[in-house]
Model the fold of this input.
Amino acid sequence: MELLCVSLLLQMVLMSTAARGPPRVSERVAHRQSVRLGRTMKLPCPVEGDPPPLIMWTKDNRNIHSGWTRFRVLQHALRIKEVETEDAGTYICKATNGFGSVNVNYTLIIIDDSSSRGGAGAANGDSEHAPELAGKLVRPRFTQPSKMRKRVIARPVGSSVRLKCTASGYPRPDIVWLKDSRPLADEDGGAAGEEGKKKRWTLSLKNLTPEHSGKYTCHVSNRAGEINATYKVEVIQRTNSKPILTGTHPVNTTVDYGGTTSFQCKVRSDVKPVIQWLKRVEPGDENKFNSTIEVGDHRFVVLPTGEVWSRPDGSYLNKLLITRAKEEDAGMYICLGANTMGYSFRSAYLTVLPDLKPQNNAVPTATSPSLPWPVIIGIPAGVAFILGTALLWFCQSKRTCSSSSTSSSALPAPQRLPAANRDRVCPAAPSQPASGDKDCLSYEDYIAHKQLLLAQGGAGLAPKVYPKIYTDIHTHTHSHVDGKVHQHQHIHYQC
Done:
């Protein structure tokens, strides 16, 4: 039975070990996806593995991060809100763990209904079918109003800005960009020309100068109507100042032992800053690291830093990822943002919860006794048995000596031993009964006593020597017809 249990346990361990491996795709997916302009798209990433993999999404070989405001990386999918024509491209979901990685590829196609209907109308001739289409005209409308809420935009010199006015309608509406109520030249904003018609819904202003400041208006119209949207752009002269850490990050974080967590740092700077993460070295742990730097009264180790992402609001973002957290990962972390004018920093603490597995394994050993219970019970029982045996032997010896003395005192006076010899037969001294063979009469005493008996009337008896003599001695006297008296003595012994 025990052998069967051991074999089953071994099989379970082997099965659990065999399950660990690189991530794998759990279900089939359609690698070609399409969505209509302005809708919300969700690209699944059905991967699984042991240990659970980390998921990272890319678009056209660019990492998708939190700076992409319309994009959100879910646990097993990527969600894109209010898709634009620029969102078309190649998307890759990459899942990685300690055993390997796997990719899930997608090609996303954006369908613009207004463009297709407008193209069909242009091909057939609008004037020819104008009466038929009179009842089907659709007034222009903005398809991405959430991207147009911020109408006042401030940017530093040398940065860039994108103004969106994506709209739809039937026939396909036309768009005209104005700056301060005057038509914007192509070379000023790049609204057309090399940007192409697909980009005209977005006005891109690059390498901003103070001359770019002003009000920008998009005028969208077709035969059914028109709509307008105005942005105010303010170009700020660069100030030579050190970076500023914005928001509340990094914040104190707690993670389970072996879990994954991250710190993030958002820095505002006129130029792209250098963002570096540091971890404080606890006193006595300096030898664990190859190199440390001294800041004030503490020493820090420089941690590897990932990519610094540029956000649309002109700030910069960086994240520090901590995987398989251990006790030594706990401590104080610092985000340091620096440029040529100085630096700023902010600290946060990481707490790693203790590992519960060693404590669970240690519970049986802590509560179990140091010796097995049969030994604890057997030792006192053995001692009690030895003491009882010794006491029984001692009482038996005392009883034997007492019976010998009684039989000796019951003999007639001529047959009794002298007082001195009688005392020696069963001495009262406590040292005699301690002999290991239970002798109450020693060998020398027996010889002396035998000679005394021979002198009293047993001259014809030959002396006999018996070892291990006991004290049970009694005398018999016989009278014969011829007047002779024959006396002999019985001595019980054991060879």
Remarks:
- The chain has a mean pLDDT of 74.
- The longest strand covers residues 100-111.
